[in-house]
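Recall that a protein's primary structure is simply its ordered list of amino acids. Everything else, from secondary elements to tertiary packing, is in principle encoded there. The following example makes that idea concrete.
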Amino acid sequence: MSRPIQSNFIQKASNRRSFLKKGVAAAGAATVGAAMFPDGLRASQEESSGNLHKGDAAILRFLAAAEILETDLWQQYSELAGVQVTSGPSFLYVTALEQLDGDMPQYISDNTDDELTHEEFINAYLASRGAETVDLTRFATLPSSKADGAKQVGRLTNLMHLNVDTSWWTRYRSSTKNPDFGDTFPQAVNINNRTAIPRTNDDLVADGGKASGVSDHTQAIANVAGFHFGTIEQGGTSLYPSLAQRVKDVEVLRIVLSIGGTEIAHFQTWHDKAGNAPPLTDVDPVTGSKVVFHDLNNDPGFGGEEFQTNLIMPEPTIFLNRNFPKCSIIRPTQTKGAAMAALNALAGSNLFLGQSKEFFAFLTSLAQDADAAQREGDH
């Protein structure tokens, strides 16, 4: 299960505005926004930009930050396994990922591009409405992989010591439980302190005795990545509809629903691929952490509807009230505390291992502001 952010991070960051940039004065996406929407016009061109409702701006800022973080992690995957990797040591990582699906490099490249467009659009829209945008550049201090293909630049996220919550696998197969009712779900795979990318070329090992030509260790890294893809995108799948319930402005609601739909498409894709992870056992030579990937359809203790790999569409389950008929739904979608829950899940996965207290305080402030947003008439 994901660990919560330590309590000393759960506080308002009084200097939050020092990390936010005002309107069209902001660099990057904000400048794009000013160019796209001259004279302060809204994207709809219906009225002057004025100011966004405070809660709507807070929701968009938190989503912008989330998309920036997603872009950062997907860029790391893409550098080592995108469509441009056709040779060299990192091609073994590509080959391992292709055991889950032959089109993995294309999917990884596309998912990376999508997240980048999300962060750029949201920041541009905020700027067009005269609202503060989000820039996390100063926090990009974490180390990169040293494997061939990885750019040696500062990162916001850490993919090399992950605790991957795979309970979404059983959650979406349950016909009797829903996390919005407080229900919990077993893990499909126990993944703790594992890398999802090759840390150096030493993690890229061939094995001529395997049909794939890839060692179990390298395949294990790819398998971890395959489940991590699903974990990240199911988070976005729930986050957007959860926060949409707090949006006041119809245009902002349109943005949240439209981008949220692509998160669902991403999740559906990765859900389908994770189940193809080849069964194996591996002990990491660096950390000593052991991982076991079972045959989820046939191994003892697995199989049945709770683990069956081709059940990738959300199983109908309880929704809103246990007395209502079961319904196939995204879950969870509880709006209370949704932003902080998402942030806690990411932090608990070690995705931010090595980040500063300042980083956590800033993101906590954004999450708290988003969770405080209210629709008109809500109390």
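The first helix runs from residue 29 to 36. The first strand starts at residue 20 and ends at 21.
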